[in-house]
Amino acid sequence: MATAPAKQKPRFVIFAHHATYDTLHQVATLGLTAAAMGKDVLIVLMFWTIKKLSDGRLNDIDFPAEYAAAGDEVRRLLREKKVPTITEMLHEAKLVGSLKVIACSAGLEYMGVDQEKVAQGVDEVMGLPAILSLTAGAETTLFI
Q: Strand 124-126 vs strand 98-104: parallel, antiparallel, or unpaired?
């Protein structure tokens, strides 16, 4: 008797462009939650997220200028509530499920970032055609 082919897990894709803490927090929490729910999560780093990763600042708690006045209070609350860092959440997502972080090779070039500077923080560097092929047919696709 033939066995049925393995059912592919639904893919959850996040294109991460903006790199302030508030947006990266959403990327990390959505990725962690989707991974814990059994989805194959792909986070594609683009432009500013690549730059922030290469600068070693992914966990910086910074905000857009229009929210700067509330920044100190939010930082205090995050520390008080022991909210995990961005990298801690991404690591946790890999432990509880399937999460892959991909950097767009064009983004590396456009931001003047050497691939070696992001190698520790990503699973793979890919060109946009490969990224679009990999993410085609995803159950959920977000641009943050």
A: parallel
